[in-house]
Amino acid sequence: MEKRNVYMDYSATTPLKGEVLDAMMPYLKENYGNPSSIYSKGIESKEAIKQSRTKISRLIGSKSDEIYFTSSGSEADNWAIFGALKGNGKHIVTSKIEHPAILNTLSYLETKGYDVTYLDVNESGLVNPDDLEKAIRDDTALVTIMMANNEIGTIQPIQKLVKLAHDKNVLFHSDAVQALGNIPVDVNKLGVDMMSFSAHKIYGPKGIGALYIKEGIEIENFVYGGGQENGKRAGTENVPAIIGFGKAAELAMNCLKEHVCHCLDLRNYLADELYAAVFDSHVNGTMLDRLPGNLNVSFDYAEGEAILLMLDYMGISVSTGSACGSSDSVPSHVLTAIGVPESRIHGTIRFSIGCFTTKDDVDYVVKAVKEVTKKLKELSPLK
Amino acid sequence: MNMYNDIVMDHFMNPRNVGEMKEPDGIGIYGSPTCGDLMQIHIKIEDDVITDAKFKAYGCGSAIASSSMATTLIIGLKVEEALKLTNGEIVDKLEGLPEAKIHCSVLADMAIKKAIFDYAESNDKHYDALKGFDPYEMQEEEHVCICGKDEES
Ligand code: FES
Question: Could you tell me if B51 and B44 are in contact, meaning their C-beta atoms sit under 8 angstroms apart?
Fold first, then answer.
């Protein structure tokens, strides 16, 4: 088998699209003006940021001044949570399968006297709306539930969940970092009050994210300083990254339909071929409400890191249960929450397909996985 | 670029002494209480010398590499010498493992001790270095699920 480089970890990050880099280039070179300066060089930067904001707002169906730039999706999540805590709200509702940017922020708040309810999910990874309804209390300040999961790709019924929260006058935030660019995201239709995004998951640059805050929703400012981001999040703007984010959003909007079909076709092909090629494999989560490019598979008799390393050796980049867990052996909280037994969690690989994945890539990955799992099974004392 | 050095990768990609024996003199199976991974070793002993060793492992790259390295280290050693082998020495021979992966090398170390213990028990042998070593108690305390299947049923 001829060695081939295949990147199949688009949920971790995506390569920068050429058009995005081209759009950013001038702002890394000659257009270095500070957007707050009032001479031409500054005004040019300011104008470019404005256009970027508009492009992103079009992708999510918001007004452009409802978009606030942050350094990352994690920062947007932090801001949404800390920002929503004011008055007597002492309680937050979330799910058990959130990103660490949510879960670790909430567990910090628990040490500060806040109360958090972690909703269970079913074996597909879905939150039960009835559970949410029951969990909301008089002192609930915020509900935060992700739109699509980073490990198993489950897409939550956000619209329904938002309605339940709003019926009880509670703010709703959703982390849509994995969803953006991969499924339609329309903030008005969903009804969310706040939503987090990140550019590097949609073929834009790293180091730039955004928080959507619905007009009329008042949350605390996050960074004090200059008047950037309407005075809510100070700091000189990361102009080239913002321009890249805007361009990536524009491209995502233009090709959303094709992108979804492309990923879905290849993902389903990968799932079918893997199932046929590797006898002891099991797909985690649901095939229905799932991000088009995501496939999460457990293999018996082969441990995840060992599979990952051998695939890496063959030129393939994938991740184990969770990219953030690559240096420790704590089993994934998401797979635990959907009831995958611990022994199986150990042998889990996440494949995520994107824009540049080809059918040949999938064929190569299937062959490689077959070879690797066979080799590891021979090595394994488990029967 | 890799999270492991070349020696570790070599032992991981081309593990030495993989397999099982028809009639081993000692069998050691040890499951890591930290991660549930598993190492099994079969040894042959003649005149108090380990003449052969074969292993199988379910685990991460570091577990496989250190098990492989450990077998190469003990073959040809006197039993007493093999018992002195520590996981630290295995790590040294591999020229280092990432901090979070040090515990994986314990698998090999413990499995070897258990295999020798098994041999000693069935051949009524006594080794000083085995004093106080009780694998039965150990595994129960740490509650290791060997096959990984019992929690499913
Ligand atoms: S993580 Fe289990 S042996 Fe390395």
Answer: yes
CATH number (3.90.1150.10, 3.30.470.20, 3.60.15.10, 3.20.20.190) of A6-15+256-378 reads: 3.90.1150.10
User: Taking CB atoms and an 8 Å cutoff, what residues of chain B touch A368?
Assistant: none
Q: Quickly state the pLDDT bin for B134 (edges 50, 70, 90).
A: confident
Q: Which residue of A has its CA nearest to B16?
A: A379
Give me the pLDDT at residue A86, please. Answer: 80
Tell me: the pLDDT tens digits for B88-104?
999 999 999 999 899 89
Supply the pTM of this predicted model: 0.92
ipTM: 0.87
Whether A371 has its CB under 8 Å from any CB of chain B: the answer is no
Q: What separation in Å is there between the alpha carbon of A112 and the centre of ligand 1?
A: 35
Residue A216 contacts B where some CB pair is shorter than 8 Å: no
Provide the 3-class DSSP secondary structure of residue A4: coil
**Chain B, nearest residue to A339 by Cα:** B152
CATH of domain A18-254: 3.40.640.10
CB A145 within 8 A of CB A193: no
Ligand 1 atom closest to B63 (CA): 3
For residue A132 the two structure tokens come to 């949410």
- Asked: is B6-122 a CATH 3.40.50.300 domain? The reply is no
Q: How many residues does chain B have?
A: 153
Q: Supply φ then ψ for residue A353, to 5 degrees.
A: -100, 150
pLDDT digits (tens, 9 = 90+) for A321-359: 754 444 556 789 999 999 999 889 999 999 999 999 999
